[in-house]
Design a protein that fits this description.
single chain, 83 residues, 3 helices, globular
Length: 83
């Protein structure tokens, strides 16, 4: 019988200081899109065409992520397409 190993969360590092605000916004948008793409892939949505804005936003509500914008939804589909 195999035992499941416990996965510890990754230690968060502070973001570098002094960068333009747009860098922080795009960084956080990419992280959010990646979390949503992983959740959708785990739930069985493997095709980017099936990942509609409604489905992505529903997954965001289920996982406790703030409602994504249209740009973030587009990034989620790009992540799913590349996987």
């Amino acid at each position: 019988m195999a035992t499941a190993s416990t996965v510890r969360p990754v230690q968060k590092k502070p973001l570098p200081a002094g960068l333009p605000r747009e860098w922080y916004e795009s960084h956080n948008r990419r992280l959010k899109a990646m979390r949503l793409a992983i959740s959708l892939l785990d739930s069985g949505t493997y095709d980017a065409k099936r990942a509609t804005n409604r489905k992505i936003r529903t997954m965001a509500v289920r996982t406790g992520i703030h409602r994504p914008s249209n740009v973030t939804c587009k990034m989620v589909r790009a992540f799913i397409k590349d996987s």
